[in-house]
Amino acid sequence: MAEEEKDESPEKESGNKKGGKNIVLIIVVVLLVLVLAIGGVIAYLMLSGDTQDAGTQVTQEKVEKRKYRNRQNDMTVGPMYPLDKFTVNLMSENGRRYLVAKINLEEDSDELTAELDKKTPLIRDIVISILSSKTVEEITTAKGKEKLKEEIIAQINKYLEDGEIRHIYFTEFVIQ
User: Fold this and answer.
1) Are 151 and 86 in contact (CB under 8 A)?
2) Lesser CB count within 10 Å: N end or C end of the chain?
3) What is the DSSP string of 75-105?
4) Rounded to whole angstroms, how far apart are CA atoms 11 and 42?
C-alpha cells in the first residue's frame, strides 16, 4: 500500500503541474487580450479626439467671424426712436418692487419713424405689459435682460408694417 501511495503521488504532482501551467497560460492570454483591448480603446479615443478638435476649431473660427461682423453692424447704428420713461410694478409677493426704465428703439429705416409716432400708445402698452409681467429675478441678470429685449422686439414687430425694430437699448434701468 505504501508503494501504491508513492505511485499515485508523482502522477498527481505531474497533473497539478500541467493544470497549473494551463491556468498560468490562460491568465497570460486574458491579460494580453485586456491590454490590447485597452490600447485599442485609447487609440480610438485619441484619433477621434483629433477630428473633434478640428471641428471645434473650425466652429470657433466661424463664431469669431460672426462676432466680428456683428461688431461692425453694431458700429453702424440705425435711426433711434426714444420712448418716454416707464415706471411699472414688478410681479412680487408683496407688490412693493418696481422698475424704472428708459428705452430707445433702433429702427431699420427712416420710414419707420412716422409709423412709430402713430403707434406710440400701442408700443407703450406692449412694453408696459411685458415689463409688469416680469419678476425681479427674471430681469436682474444679463441673460434675463437680453431675453426681455428679444421679447419686446418680437411683440412690437408684430404690429409694424413699414419696417422693424432691430435692437432695443435700455438707457435707464433701475429696480427698487
Assistant:
1) no
2) N
3) HS---EEE---EEEEPB-SSS--EEEEEEEE
4) 47
Q: Are strands 98-107 and 80-82 parallel, antiparallel or unpaired?
A: antiparallel
Q: What's the pLDDT score for residue 171?
A: 94
Give me the average pLDDT of each 10-residue run along the chain (176 residues): 49 58 89 88 74 51 51 71 93 85 92 92 95 91 93 94 92 92
pTM of the model: 0.57
What residue ranges do the domains of the chain occupy?
Answer: 1-76, 80-175
Alpha carbon 74 to chain centroid distance? Answer: 23
Please state, as a whole number, how many other Cβ atoms lie within 10 Å of the Cβ of residue 102: 15
Residue found under cell 494551463: 22
Which phi and psi (to 5°) does residue 82 adopt?
A: -80, 140
Interior CA angle at 137 toward 136 and 139, to 5°?
Answer: 70
Alpha-carbon distance 97 to 53, whole Å?
Answer: 48
Sequence-ordered list of residues with C-beta below 8 angstroms from that of 8, at least 6 positions apart, any chain: none
Collapse the DSSP code of 166 into the 3-class scheme (helix H, G, I; strand E, B; otherwise coil) and give the result.
strand
Q: Which cell goes with 169?
A: 437699448
At the topology level, CATH places domain 80-175 in Tetrahydropterin Synthase; Chain A (3.30.479)
